[in-house]
Amino acid sequence: MEVFKPEPLVIDGHPHYTLTSYDPVAVEVNVHDLTEEDVEQAMAFSIAQKGGGPERMNDDAWICYTFKGVHGAAELRNTIRNELETANQEMVENQLAAACASELAKRLEQQVIADQIAHFRRDIEQTFEATLAEQGVTLDLVLAQTGASRAEVDAMFDEQARQTAAQEAAVSAWARKMGITVSDDELEQMMGGPAPADQKESLRDMAINSKAMRRIMDECSVTYNHDGLNQSDHPHLKLV
Known about the structure:
The chain has a domain at about 110-170. Helix content is about 60%, strand content about 10%. The chain has 8 helices and 5 strands. The strands form 2 sheets. The chain has a 3-stranded mixed β-sheet. Helix 4 packs across helix 6 (about 150-175) and helix 6 packs across helix 8. The protein starts with 8 loop residues before the first strand and ends in a 7-residue tail after the last strand.
């Protein structure tokens, strides 16, 4: 049974949300431990893209000639391994951020206002359409290929927008409670330059949430499931 939640208090056009608790969240994150098989498969794929077959995996002369700046098979393997490790780390960080935000959203004491959900709904749909355009395909083509209906896609967008809006509202509530702020100098540093005057406050709100999210992740209690194994500690940075 869904629990009724009131609408938030709106002050100066900004909804003010509160949470049932501001304590650190406890989450779980799945981690794939990189293997040599992963590296070999990625290397084989890179070589295949250059027109080579399995026989080129240890062909130093061919690799030096084909991959500019790479001095043999060993260096190519190390480069690919480093790229995979970086991608793996980014995936873990993204999972951690999503898990923390999701848990925090469960603590919201108010329902998210419709305007905020609609804002994220527009952004999600526009981003999706832009991604399809970059790939040279249309939504109609994707629907035909997958057998999905427009109603199903709209329902997916709606649910993702509700989740995103709730998470942002929860992080905002946490940031306000903890007194997190972003000065003009910080904002300029984060933006890589002065923020446009007409967007400055909205960008500041985003920066505050980003700063808060980093602290929420640093303070959370996290369990890392390493390919089926379980490892936990606190803070999370000791484990990654």
